[in-house]
């Protein structure tokens, strides 16, 4: 079932027609479907039905909007956070600290201390020195930090280079062959309660094979650590499951993923942690935009929309595809390039794309924009920070304001020696 559907020729999000949102909030604007978030949360959990002990920590970097986090907290999800700011969001949304995982390759001592004060349930360590520092801070507070070592299993996720994290040359994790000795040393520190290992090999994976290969290596590591006398109670399997962006793309379902996990981890006897991001958020949002001009081009016309690379960076960053659909299509088609107003050629969403025929003033959406969309937005070219709207049935609410360029300007100062 899809919560983004046409009724009487007008694209709706759940029961709300998109022109209503454009009228109330303006454009560009991200629009999320609460029902879709809930459904994805349930489908992912159902996929893991054969995993006896599990905890799902939504990777909030995919979409950290407070309202989204509240929805997922209500579904029993915890959070995977990668900064003190994300931790503050997860706590503000009402996620229990115990269910929060603190990941990230550059956690500062200050962030580690704040995590300890908040009672974070699991720190995923990226290097030995981080473990020593965490142990020291914890001991000084009379605490034991619950932690795992994130290992790099040296598996090629087969995804875009910029979102691949599990090859040995990537910056993430401890080389898997060095993990047992490091585990021996760190487990002796009184400030650490070292419970297991973690991995996350990349994002937008279209194939289960690299995940299965990584998990198999993790399984061997767990066995080796137990041979060395360590009690391993937790294994964090990360996120990474991809979603279809293009019509016709096929992806493993959460059920396929869950069946693979259940089979690989059959004998592990540990609580498994999962960190899905994109698979929960991607298809739960669209970026609503208005056509400013249709500019004649040499080869194809340029459809210039009011959304730009500062609002949705994925095409410029990863050559990503987002479907472009008119909100009130006429049935006619055109071949066009789609671009935003930003002064960069990279501010191009598509070239030579077969799309609904649109004219200046028409509304359209970029689909599958719920993950790594608004959260990556900037104000480049002194554009406003894009707002976000959550639809729930026939209700909708602005869940992040549009922050005007003037508001950002107001935070800048001309120093006194340059004053006129
Ligand atoms: C980004 C990230 C995730 C989520 O990745 P998705 O591809 O969105 O599922 C999970 N864990 C860690 C450590 C991450 O950095």
From TrEMBL:
Record-annotated Orn/DAP/Arg decarboxylase 2 C-terminal domain positions: 30-370
InterPro entries: Ala_racemase/Decarboxylase_C, DAP_deCOOHase_LysA, De-COase2_C, De-COase2_CS, De-COase2_N, De-COase2_pyr-phos_BS, Orn/DAP/Arg_de-COase, PLP-binding_barrel
EC number assigned by the record: 4.1.1.20
CDD domains: PLPDE_III_DapDC (cd06828)
Keywords assigned by UniProt, alphabetized: Amino-acid biosynthesis, Decarboxylase, Lyase, Lysine biosynthesis, Pyridoxal phosphate
Catalytic residues identified in the record: 343
Top-level lineage group: Bacteria
Biological-process GO terms, alphabetical: lysine biosynthetic process via diaminopimelate
Example GO molecular function: pyridoxal phosphate binding
Cofactor: pyridoxal 5'-phosphate
Binding site for pyridoxal 5'-phosphate: 240, 275-278, 372
Pathway the protein acts in: Amino-acid biosynthesis; L-lysine biosynthesis via DAP pathway; L-lysine from DL-2,6-diaminopimelate: step 1/1
N6-(pyridoxal phosphate)lysine: modified positions: 61
Catalytic function, reaction form: meso-2,6-diaminopimelate + H(+) = L-lysine + CO2
Binding-site positions, substrate: 278, 314, 318, 344, 372
Family membership noted in the UniProt record: Belongs to the Orn/Lys/Arg decarboxylase class-II family. LysA subfamily.
Assembly and oligomerization: Homodimer.
Function noted in UniProt: Specifically catalyzes the decarboxylation of meso-diaminopimelate (meso-DAP) to L-lysine.
Protein name from the UniProt record: Diaminopimelate decarboxylase
């Amino acid at each position: 079932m899809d919560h983004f559907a046409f009724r009487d020729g007008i694209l709706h999000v759940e029961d709300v027609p998109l022109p209503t949102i454009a009228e109330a909030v303006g454009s560009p604007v991200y629009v999320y479907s609460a029902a879709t978030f809930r459904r994805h949360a349930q489908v992912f959990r159902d996929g893991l039905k054969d995993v006896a002990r599990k905890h799902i920590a939504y990777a909030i970097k995919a979409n950290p909007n407070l309202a989204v986090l509240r929805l997922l907290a209500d579904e029993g999800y915890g959070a995977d956070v990668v900064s003190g700011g994300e931790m503050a969001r997860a706590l503000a949304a009402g996620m229990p600290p115990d269910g929060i995982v603190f990941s990230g390759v550059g956690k500062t001592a200050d962030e580690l201390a704040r995590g300890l004060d908040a009672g974070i349930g699991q720190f995923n360590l990226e290097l030995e020195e981080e473990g020593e520092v965490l142990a020291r801070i914890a001991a000084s507070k009379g605490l034991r930090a619950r932690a795992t070592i994130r290992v790099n299993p040296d598996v090629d996720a087969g995804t875009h280079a910029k979102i691949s994290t599990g090859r040995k040359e990537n910056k993430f994790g401890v080389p898997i062959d060095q993990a047992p000795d490091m585990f021996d040393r760190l487990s002796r520190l009184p400030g650490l309660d070292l419970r297991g290992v973690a991995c996350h090999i990349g994002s937008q994976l279209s194939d289960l094979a690299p995940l299965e290969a990584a998990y198999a290596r993790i399984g061997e590591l767990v066995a080796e650590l137990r041979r060395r006398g360590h009690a391993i109670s937790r294994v964090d399997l990360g996120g990474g499951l991809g979603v279809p962006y293009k019509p016709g793309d096929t992806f493993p379902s959460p059920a396929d993923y869950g069946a693979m996990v259940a089979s690989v981890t059959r004998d592990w006897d540990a609580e498994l942690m999962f960190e899905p991001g994109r698979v929960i958020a991607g298809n739960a949002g669209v970026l609503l935009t208005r056509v400013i001009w249709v500019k004649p081009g040499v080869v194809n016309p340029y459809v210039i929309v009011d959304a730009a690379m500062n609002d949705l960076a994925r095409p410029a960053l990863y050559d990503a595809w987002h479907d472009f659909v008119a909100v009130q299509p006429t049935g006619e088609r055109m071949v066009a390039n789609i671009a935003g107003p930003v002064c960069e050629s990279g501010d191009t969403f598509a070239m030579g794309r077969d799309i609904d025929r649109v004219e200046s003033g028409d509304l359209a959406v970029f689909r599958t924009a719920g993950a790594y969309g608004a959260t990556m937005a900037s104000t480049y070219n002194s554009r406003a920070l894009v707002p976000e709207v959550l639809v729930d049935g026939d209700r909708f609410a602005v869940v992040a304001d549009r922050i005007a360029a003037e508001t950002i300007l107001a935070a800048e100062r001309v120093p006194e020696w340059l004053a006129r």
